[in-house]
């Protein structure tokens, strides 16, 4: 159960207030390339992305939001740095949320015009602080971008919006250091009840970034901290969504979808299980379902079905074939050459 935060509405979804944790990602297309951006958002939505952020580095990108919005049905977040006009244009063109850093948007008057527009259109603002955005005076005060420095920076940015009469705020406070990130979120969750968007920034390439994000996001969620997550990876954003959902699944925070388990193989295995497990994993990622299922890909029929008896359906390697089993009980043998197709067809019957 996550910590009770206040609810913030972003388009058609609610963040915080005990709602389930939302998986976000960010496009890496040029936002002004409308067709490519829409295609990428559709791809991400299909595999479970529920909220999408796009970079708004120029007015063309802000204008593109209008067409993008018409073609997608998940809320969109406009990511803006420095230029308040881009925030205004993004909201005018349909952004469901904006991510800014109030301290670098150009001064109080400009911030006021952004907040006024957000109030008028009921658009929440994410205050996004990270270790690289901490103000110089706080770096001096704390001797670097420590968790205390990041928390103070986030709070002072939040206060700027509150003083302008708005409280539809989401906070993120990310570092590329896992322990600092955990510490920062723990500290800020003790002093505010705004929903928190959590993640490890600049986490790295797919393997290392997945590990860092799983440790950081996983620890926080397990402590009830975090209302939305983004796994930041140097790679295809699809990986971010897949990893994000796996983190939620493994913490019991995802009630739908298909979990794939597979054995590590050992001397009893006589099939190319690594290859077939990869294929099944990839095919399963593309299956949309509102059910919760577990599938098992096991190396041998001697131990496999028993080791995976809690799986809804599975296969276990034999000699040139696989044994199909359901709830640990053998059903029939399938030929090695068409095992993946047959298995996926059998799985789809359960959906
Ligand atoms: S299922 Fe069979 S092959 Fe896989 S680890 Fe267990 S004993 Fe080894």
Q: How do the strands and helices of this protein lay out in sequence?
A:
Layout: E1 8-10, E2 13-15, E3 22-26, H1 34-46, E4 51-55, H2 59-71, E5 76-79, H3 84-92, E6 97-100, H4 108-121, E7 125-130, H5 136-142, H6 147-163, E8 169-174, H7 178-191, E9 197-198, H8 206-222, E10 228-230, H9 237-250, E11 257-262, H10 273-285, E12 292-298, H11 304-307, E13 313-317, E14 321-326, E15 329-335, H12 339-349
Parallel strand pairs: 3-4, 3-10, 4-5, 5-6, 6-7, 7-8, 9-10, 11-12, 12-13
Antiparallel strand pairs: 1-2, 13-14, 14-15
Helix pairs in contact: 1-2, 2-3, 3-4, 5-6, 6-7, 7-8, 8-9, 10-12
Iron/sulfur cluster (SF4) is lined by residues 263-266, 268-269, 298-300, 303-304, 307.
Structure characterization notes:
The structure is a single chain. This protein is of the alpha/beta class. It has two domains: 8-250, Alpha-Beta Barrel (TIM Barrel), CATH 3.20.20.20; 257-349, Sulfite Reductase Hemoprotein, domain 1, CATH 3.30.413. 42% of the residues lie in helices and 21% in strands. The chain has twelve helices and 15 strands. It has helices at 34-46, 59-71, 84-92, 108-121, 136-142, 147-163, 178-191, 206-222, 237-250, 273-285, 304-307, 339-349; strands at 8-10, 13-15, 22-26, 51-55, 76-79, 97-100, 125-130, 169-174, 197-198, 228-230, 257-262, 292-298, 313-317, 321-326, 329-335. An eight-stranded parallel beta sheet has the order 8-7-6-5-4-3-10-9. The longest helix has 17 residues, at 147-163. The relative contact order is 0.10. The site of iron/sulfur cluster has 12 residues, from helix 11.
